[in-house]
Amino acid sequence: MGNLFIVFTPLQLFVSQQIIRQEKLKNNVVIFGWDSQFHDAFEMMCLDELWHKKVFKEDINKWGSFKLNNFTSVKKIKDDFRWLKKTCEEEHIETIYLGEILNQMCRFVAVAFSHLKYKIVFFEEGTSHYVNRPYNMEQTWQEKIKESLLDMLLFKPAFGCDFAKWHCTPNRPYDDLPMDKRYSMIPFHHQIFDVPLSVEPMFSSKLKKYVESNIRSGVEERRVMLMTDPLRELMKKDDLYLYFETIQETISSLDSDVVLYLKFHPREIQTSRDKILEIARQSGVKFKILSEKVNICVEYYLQMFKFEKVFFFNAATYFYNGYAFPKTEFVKLMPVLYKKAKAVGICNLTYMENMLKMIEPIAVES
Rounded to an integer, what distance in angstroms lies between the CA atom of residue 138 and that of residue 78? Predict the structure, then answer.
């Protein structure tokens, strides 16, 4: 029987291939979503010998976002559901592997296909794997009626299962999701279905060559890394100067013989990148951009090369320190940014406070 992995980020592919290695899985099929953004990374990271078949389905990561007032949207999700069901049947799939446990598509596939008697496995995909979002369990009678009607008129007839509670409350804790196994790199979950995932370096020849082309190998140098974060999505435009100021102070504090490697977040927009590059140039520090052409997982660099320090604001990579790569010193910049924001009187800092809370409880000392 076969295994189906649904993947729409490079990290999900990274973890999927680790599971296949650890469990010695055969007859593996992967469906790649979000291919327009990550196609080159998928092609470079993919170990072809692990995969029986590769399928590309651009918008698979959006399946769970039903727009019930749009007939075209409802029809499309029905068509996609039938397509996935047919794919599972043709490939003799027994188990479906899903990442990002808070993604509505993953939740929909888990609920709908568990009713079709497929085994459901969730795997590591960043901080969402460990942290529930704030959720209010109380419902009004109108909300309860709405859920009942949606299940009765749409989800049950079309997909054979109740899904309205997940559709109406996307932040709902995942405790009652169907789950046969859950793979985690960090020993945080301890349910009967939890499986620890060990990580070993796994490089295709193309990937190894690319990583080595980004960093000067065979040369003695003091390396540090700075990982950016798309905080423009959360901060007001007038407050963004504090983000760049924190980066400027960090770079200015580096010793003159250090080589700085910049790892931009995939969602860091070009104007922010240009600003950070200008800060680096003005500092006089030698620097280089990682993954400038192909956006691969930063974990690969940390597996292959030693960095004295990694500066970050809010990155899942921090939690994998000592699990996905050798133990490295990580320096938190979010507390610095938070103090700056408080000092200038910015009032609504809930998003920063949530990030700060998230940084500490997840990490487990090895």
Answer: 30
Token pair of 133, please?
């979002």
Q: Angle at which helices 35-45 and 10-23 pack, to 10 degrees?
A: 40
- Distance from C-alpha of 225 to C-alpha of 288, rounded to nearest angstrom: 10
pLDDT tier at 26 (50, 70, 90 boundaries)? very high
Tell me if residue 256 falls in helix, strand or coil.
coil
In the predicted structure, residue 333 carries a pLDDT above the cut 90: yes
- Residue 351 near residue 230 (C-beta atoms within 8 A): no
Spatial contact of 40 and 51, defined as CB atoms under 8 Å apart: no
8 Å CB contact between 17 and 202: yes
Residues recorded for the chain: 366
* Interval 289-313 mean pLDDT: 95
C-beta separation of 45 from 13 below 8 A: yes
Q: What is the reported pTM?
A: 0.89
